[in-house]
Amino acid sequence: SLGALIFRAIISKTVAGDEALELVRDEAMSDVSISAHSIRNTRRVLPRGAHVLRREEIKLRELSLAPTGLAQHPGAKVLVMRAEQIDEQETDAGTPKRDAVRRRLLLL
């Protein structure tokens, strides 16, 4: 079975952030560009001789919006977009960078 990279992105409340969200809503920028470094792979040869390389673990370097029709891979698309209030009372521990973003958002 094929896996999927599912991510949650926080878009800052800025002119550029609002413009990016509008372009996604208009489907002008609904593709995603991904740059990653391979950490762990498995290789195998199928019975007919085709070689298969499966990325088991990767380290993301970059994830960004791209104009519709220019995705690196056919399925690399923004599929869902929703707004949610970031709650200071979230139960997960977070990270220092995420905590800083959460504090900035609460100030907006």
Largest sheet: 2 strands, antiparallel
Q: What amount of the residues lies in strands?
A: 25-35%
Name the overall outline.
flat
The residue fraction in helices comes out at 10-25%
List how many beta strands DSSP finds.
Answer: 2
Distance between the termini: 42 Å
Strand order of the largest sheet: 1-2
H/E element string? HEEH
Description of the molecule:
By secondary structure, this protein is an alpha+beta fold. Helix content is 21%, strand content 29%. The chain has helices spanning 15-25, 96-107; strands at residues 31-45, 51-66. A hairpin with a 5-residue loop joins strand 1 and strand 2. The model has no long low-confidence stretch (mean pLDDT 79).
SSE topology sketch:
Layout: H1 15-25, E1 31-45, E2 51-66, H2 96-107
Antiparallel strand pairs: 1-2
Spell out the key features of this protein:
single chain, 108 residues, 2 helices, 2 strands
Give a brief rundown of this model:
By secondary structure, the protein is an alpha+beta fold.
